[in-house]
Structure formats: C-alpha cells, structure tokens
Amino acid sequence: MSTKVEDLEVHGASPWSYHPAAPPLAIIYPASVEDVVDVVRICSHTRTPIVPYAGGTSLEAHAALQGAVCVDWRDMASVISVNAEDGDVHVQPGLRYEDLNAHLKSLGLQLFFPVDPGPGAQIGGMCASGGSGTNAVRYGTMKGDYVLSLDVVLASGEVIRTRSRARKSSAGPDLTKLFLGSEGTLGLIVGATLRLAPLLPISVACVPFPSVENAVSAAHALLNTGANVQCVELLDEAMIRAINADDDDDDDDDEQQAAAAPHHPLEPTLFVKFAGTDAHRTEDERLLSIVASSYGANRGAVRFARKEAEMEELWSARKQALWAALEFAGEGKRCWTTDVCVPISKLPQLVKRVKQETNDAGIYGPIVGHV
User: Fold this and answer.
1) 250-276 pLDDT tens trace
2) Which CATH architecture best describes the domain 5-72?
3) Would you list the domain boundaries of the chain?
4) pTM of whole model > 0.90?
5) CATH of domain 79-197
6) Average pLDDT, whole number, for the chain?
7) Phi then psi for 141, rounded to 5 degrees?
C-alpha cells in the first residue's frame, strides 16, 4: 500500500485530462486474487469506493475518485497459462498486451493478441474500458470475440468466472460482455482468458489525398473491396506538418537518419496495413492503388513497404503523432486528447466540422484516428 503524495497524484490526475485532480485515499497493490477479495470486503464493510487502475493510458484519462481506494494491478502482471492448441491464453489484469505478445514470440508461437490500444495498456484496463486500437478494422475491439471469459471479484467478495474456455456457448446470457466496458462499476477484473490470432505477414502503405473527405471516402471504398486490411489510419495535414517538423529535428541530431526518414506531402494521408500471404498482399496493394487514384491521389506518391525497417519508418508517423504534435505546438503547451466515434459514412462530415470549429476558435487541433 502507498499513501505517498507522488503516487496519489499519479493515480488521481492526468496531463491529458480537463477534469480537476482527485487523489485517492491510498493505493493498494494486491499480489493475488485473495488479496483483492480482502480489499473488497474491507472496503464494502467501510463503504469506501474502489477504483481499479491499470496502465493509465486511456485517451479520456480515467482517474481515481476523491475519497476512494485505488487498486493498482502492478503486482498481478503474469501469464498464467498458454493453450497453444486451443489458441487461447489466461492472464492477470496487470499484464501489458505488448508483454503478452513478446512472451508468445519467445515461445516460438505464430500467435498474438491483436487488440492494440496505446503502448503500455494493460489487459485489465483494456477489458474494463472496452479498449480498441489500430487493428480494430480486422480484429475488432475488446468488446468483440477475443475475450473468452473473465475472472471477477464482485462487491460482496465473491469470485466468479463468466464462462468456460470453449469458443462457443449458446446457453444463458453472455456475462463476459456485461463486464467489458463496465469500468470497475460491477466488479474488479482479476483475470482474463483471451483468444489469440494467427500472426500473418504484413505490408504497409502510405497514401496522401487532396482532402480529408477524399481520404475517408477512399478508405471506405477500400474496405468494401474485401481487401485484407488490418489497419487504416488517417492523419490530417496539420498532423503531417508536425511529423515532418519532428523528423527534421531528429535529423539535425543524426545525419544518417536524415537520409532514411520519410518526408510526407502536406496532405491528409492514409496509413494502411495489409495482412496475409504474398499473393493476398500483392492483390490488396493493387486494389489500393486503383481506389486511391479514383479519389484523387497521385499514384506516384503512393508508397509501399514490406521490409521490416521500411515498414517501421512509414508507420512511425502514426506512432509518434501525439509527441510530434506536442513538440510542434511549442514549449509549455499542454495537450487535451479526446476521442469520438461515428458511423464511417459520417466520418467526412465529422472531420470537416471539427477542423472548422478548431480553426474558428484559434485552436491548434491536429487529427489522427482509425478509419
């Protein structure tokens, strides 16, 4: 347990949030399910609120409540079991999804957990917040079919498992989905059985468009071709400008990197990942070129990459977007991140409206997101 001021501040506030800071009473670091049960029963008896805390990576900056006890999953971050033949894994809530995938790789398995929110996100938080990520186009979100069951400590201290490991269960309500996205209000998630996906070869494409509307419409059209799209991300011209400036700053420190870092046209740009066999990806890349041209993209500006280093260079624009925007905004500036979701057919209208309102308000508001 910790009552240190610095720990309370970390768990009660976020640099991304517009909510006032609300430090909890204490931070509890349980090491077992039994520890969690004890905490829940004591807090239930004293009528003290409990707020679980995982990686702290949420865009909307979920934080503790004043007067609450914060349960941090730091010491419950293990892989409990891997069932390679069944394609599933049982894990504790504090495990980061990147660490899970690194563990699977170390075992020599061509399997991975595909839901990928922000770096550092932990499985418990991903379940509790219904997390998503760049791979949602192909694999869906935490509310899809990749969470098979959950181990949950209820407010009474009772421990339940929401269902078996079997892929199919048609009897009764789906208790697993009841807890996904519940944000700790129905119980504390202390374990999860996750479905794994085959690890397929990928390629990356980068396509600039004359307008955001063209880019979003092209993404919609590409998905309708049936191409094996794993990710499709939109960065508007304001974000591209920040990324180019960030690359220039890096290049000043490393001349060798200067020759390699891609400089992007100052246009709204789609970053696309395809997954599948060589034949599948070749056909997908051909479809993308056709669709892009039909929505005003210059075929000569479309870039494809299959080698690991080249893919990393192209995709780095998406990975560094937040930090590049902060750097571009200038010293002393803070960032307020927010997240919205609409039907894909409404996305061009949404982006147009957001850009108009931020411009009218004199706010620097670059846009990045999943299409």
Assistant:
1) 555 555 544 445 588 999 999 999 999
2) 2-Layer Sandwich (3.30)
3) 5-72, 79-197, 202-370
4) no
5) 3.30.465.10
6) 89
7) -115, -175
Structural fold of domain 202-370: Alpha-Beta Plaits (3.30.70)
Map tokens 């011209």 to a residue: 237
